[in-house]
């Protein structure tokens, strides 16, 4: 027997090349505030201002992975952080999302962390396990 499966959930907006300027934790939610919003995936495919809230987050299964500078290949000294610890450590940053992956109750945002005190970019992933909704709050 052959069973084929391709999970491709319909998402209303693309976060590719969009910059997160702040991450806020409140109760079991995470709010991502964006510098310039994100891209609408329906005609006319325009950029809209907005933020995202993720509900029902399990913080025991949510983390930030800091990897190599500039996304270089080879050996590096990385760091895995609880999201709350990341927020406390980094105050003046932006996180440019390059890839977004959605699975069963999980989201992975991959991209580059830019820290205002340094010129180096650090490859970074935010992995979030959640049981609620992803809410796109736009100003359109």
From TrEMBL:
It comes from the Bacteria. This is Cpp4. It comes from Copranaerobaculum intestinale.
